[in-house]
């Protein structure tokens, strides 16, 4: 897992979302807060967010940056849950082999 470049540097600096998920009230966070949220997401394999989804964008940006498959759930009682999809070893090996064999089709958007 890599920290997206926008969250690196002085932890006191605030960062604003690039894209806010529909139906959320995204808020700016400090770089330190963002790094903590990302580490917790990858350590636990999931993260929970309030119905307002103030920090949901941080998790989604990190997952997209790292090309990590995930499932986003809206919890009817109020809130969001992000779960990292665990790939079986065979699938992960296949994907790694394909990316090595065909690096030009890796799909880098940046």
Low-confidence stretches: none
The termini sit apart by 17 Å
- Placed side by side, the strands forming the largest sheet appear as 3-5-4
Question: How does the major sheet shape up?
Answer: 3 strands, antiparallel
Question: Helix proportion of residues, in percent?
Answer: 25-40%
Shape verdict: globular
Describe the structure.
The chain is an alpha+beta fold and 110 residues long. It is 34% helix and 16% strand. The protein is built from three helices and five strands; from the N terminus they run E-E-H-E-H-E-E-H. The strands form two sheets. Strands 3-5-4 form a three-stranded antiparallel sheet. A two-stranded antiparallel ribbon has the order 1-2. Strand 4 and strand 5 form a beta hairpin. The longest helix is centred in the middle third of the chain and has 14 residues, at 31-44. The protein is globular. The relative contact order is 0.16. The mean pLDDT is 86.
Features:
single chain, alpha+beta, 3-stranded antiparallel β-sheet, 110 residues, 34% helix, 3 helices, two-stranded antiparallel ribbon
Structure summarized in a few sentences:
With 110 residues, this protein is α+β, with helices and mostly antiparallel strands. The chain has helices spanning 31-44, 56-65, 89-101, and strands at 14-15, 29-30, 46-49, 70-74, 80-84.
Topology (elements, then pairings):
Blueprint: E1 14-15, E2 29-30, H1 31-44, E3 46-49, H2 56-65, E4 70-74, E5 80-84, H3 89-101
Antiparallel strand pairs: 1-2, 3-5, 4-5
């Amino acid at each position: 897992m890599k920290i997206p470049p926008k969250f690196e540097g002085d932890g006191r600096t605030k960062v604003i979302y690039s894209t806010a998920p529909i139906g959320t009230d995204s808020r700016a966070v400090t770089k330190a807060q963002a790094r903590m949220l990302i580490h917790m997401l990858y350590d636990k394999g999931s993260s929970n967010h309030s119905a307002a989804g103030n920090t949901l964008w941080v998790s989604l940006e990190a997952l997209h940056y790292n090309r990590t498959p995930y499932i986003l759930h809206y919890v009817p009682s109020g809130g969001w849950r992000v779960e990292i999809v665990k790939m079986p070893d065979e699938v992960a090996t296949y994907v790694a082999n394909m990316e090595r064999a065909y690096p030009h089709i890796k799909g880098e958007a940046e």
